[in-house]
Specification:
The protein is of the alpha/beta class. The chain has 8 helices and 13 strands. Helix 5 crosses helix 6. The longest helix has 21 residues. The chain is globular, with a radius of gyration of 17 Å.
Length: 229
């Protein structure tokens, strides 16, 4: 594990075993004002996340030791943190698996540094925007403490990933209102096009698994509505 010498702005952990890519990503993020730490394998990544408490993790899927999917599982089990996953695979199934274990967003290699930094800023803005809204939301037996980023249903607390939390808050602010998948993708993910609507489906599926299948209603061909009672 390598550490940056100056701490400016938010801290990002970059996990990538290809030195050229790792250094290029780190250099660009440091130029954006972030403090950047590097890890090059699965065990080192988990240890770094625990020691450093980064604000965001840029995580390659293919790693020595154990892969990025396992890294993501272990990181999210300890503390909810935004994860941007990097993958050389173009198979949508692999992408959905990554989203299913707690990744918030993904980029397929090769990618431009401009796109990567835009996604990093969008992920961090998303967390900040939700935090700034404050207060507690109560919809039926669902309670969301926005300041503490905690969620209960029927008095049972459930841990969510950052993006699962923001999606739930977005739906809970408009209970029983059907929100189109494209709208959710734009307002929660910050994506301007509808090419990632399967990411919405994946995160809704995760919320149902964690909080109950009856929580979110599907309106086929349109989108989703929160139906907690």
């Amino acid at each position: 594990m390598e550490h940056s010498q100056q701490r400016t702005g938010r801290r990002i952990l970059v996990v990538e075993d290809e030195p050229t890519i790792a250094e290029s990503v780190a250099a660009r993020l440091r130029a954006e004002g972030f403090t950047v730490d590097l890890a090059h394998n699965g065990p080192a990544a988990v240890a770094a996340a625990e020691d450093l408490d980064p604000d965001l993790v840029v995580l390659d899927v293919m790693l020595p030791g154990f892969d990025g999917l396992e890294v993501c599982r272990r990181i999210q089990a300890r503390r909810s943190v935004p994860v941007l996953m990097l993958t050389a695979r173009t198979d949508e199934t692999d992408v959905l698996v990554g989203l299913g274990v707690g990744a918030d967003d993904y980029l397929t290699k090769p990618f431009s540094m401009r796109v990567l930094t835009a996604r990093v800023h969008a992920l961090l803005r998303r967390v900040e925007r939700t935090a700034e809204s404050g207060a507690t939301l109560v919809v039926g037996d669902l309670r969301i403490d926005i300041d503490q980023r905690r969620v209960w249903r029927a008095d049972a607390e459930t841990q969510l990933t950052p993006l699962e939390f923001e999606l739930l808050v977005h739906l809970a602010r408009r209970p029983r209102t059907v929100l189109a998948r494209e709208r959710l993708l734009s307002e929660v993910w910050g994506w301007a096009d509808a090419s990632g609507t399967r990411a919405v489906d994946s995160h809704v599926k995760a919320l149902r698994r964690k909080l109950g299948a009856d929580l979110i209603r599907t309106v086929h061909g349109v989108g989703y509505a929160l139906e907690a009672r």
